[in-house]
Design goal:
Number of helices: 2
Distance between the termini: 69 Å
Helix content: under 10%
Bound molecules: manganese (II) ion
Order of helices and strands: HEEEEEEEEEEEEEEEEEEEEEEEEEEEH
Structural class: mainly beta
Oligomer: single chain
Number of strands: 27
Radius of gyration: 21 Å
Length: 312
């Protein structure tokens, strides 16, 4: 035997520790705090380190706040293309109005799903004269090439399937989970589930072919020795049958997943596209107030499109 032991040689590495180092349970990615009108949100997707999870390409977690006539949630008419907006509330109420002529209020436990296709516009606001806590998320699902130029549509689902697991009540927002399928239209193979966890250990089933991630909306969750709190994306990866989560007290988690989305995405402002030319055209179509995105019957002011930074 030669030479003295270095301190790091002192403790033999256990096969378990090496396996955990090579395959950490979670990749934790910090969200970016940003402002959407009067709302402060944590944007956990897209992040530089992780642009998509399956077809999920955008995830804003609204920081809970109190709405009142003086401090309302008001997002004026703005356009979308190439994506589905998935609106999910934990508390409060939001009224959606779109250029298809739909006016639809949404409450906790319900889903508003707008499929933009070639183009749609909508506005969202809290009902006037209410004073209540507002808390929720807005997510986008990228539409695949085969449908992204299609006609826009809107769905409201007042009731969604519930699944009970040990220490968890789950709501299937989109896709299928434990044999229960959401009635929401899916154009890709993906899933979105709200997990309402009670104190204790929960084993959440996953699909091996999906990559998954989750966002803690309330409370704290531990996976192995990693602690996940609101404001971060916890990327789980794929090839896993389940994930064990421990909650010290009640926690609320949003689990998203799907088959990895392989089409190249170019996201800019409210548009999901494939090229700058598509973005330029959408920008011009919104700015010229043409027929493509239609008109929203809303008391709020239309939001102008910024100019794409690559246009000089
Ligand atoms: Mn929108």
């Amino acid at each position: 035997m030669s030479g003295p032991l270095k301190p790091e040689d002192d403790v033999p590495a256990s096969p378990m520790a090496e396996a955990e180092a090579a395959h950490p349970n979670l990749e934790l990615i910090e969200g970016r705090r940003t402002q959407v009108g009067a709302m402060e949100v944590n944007r956990v997707l897209p992040r530089r380190a992780r642009r998509t999870v399956g077809p999920w390409c955008f995830f804003d977690h609204m920081t809970p706040f109190t709405v009142s006539p003086e401090n309302a949630l008001e997002v004026g008419p703005h356009p979308h293309m190439g994506l589905q907006t998935v609106t999910w509330l934990i508390s409060g109420e939001v009224v959606h109005r779109d250029s298809l002529g739909v006016e639809q209020s949404i409450k906790p436990g319900q889903l508003n799903l707008m499929t933009a296709g070639h183009g749609v516009a909508h506005a969202e606001q809290s009902p006037v004269k209410t004073v209540e806590k507002m808390h929720g998320v807005q997510m986008w699902v990228a539409q695949p090439d085969v449908t992204r130029n299609g006609v826009p549509r809107f769905e409201h689902h007042a009731e969604l399937p519930l699944v009970s697991l040990a220490n968890v009540d789950a709501t299937v927002i989109v896709g299928e989970f434990e044999g229960e399928a959401s009635p929401a239209t899916s154009e890709t193979d993906h899933v979105g589930v709200e997990l309402n966890m009670r104190a204790g250990t929960s084993t959440v089933p996953l699909r091996r072919a999906f990559e998954h991630a989750f966002v803690v909306l309330e409370g704290t969750v531990r996976v192995g020795d990693q602690i996940v709190t609101p404001g971060n994306l916890a990327y789980v990866g794929s090839e896993r049958d389940e994930i064990g989560m421990v909650a010290a007290e009640d926690a609320r988690v949003l689990l998203i997943g799907g088959e990895p989305f392989t089409e190249p995405l170019l996201m800019w402002w409210n548009f999901v596209a494939r090229s700058r030319e598509e973005i330029n055209a959408a920008h011009q179509d919104w700015e010229s107030n043409g027929r493509r995105f239609g008109k929203v019957d809303s008391p709020l002011a239309r939001i102008p499109s910024p100019r794409p930074q690559w246009l000089t």
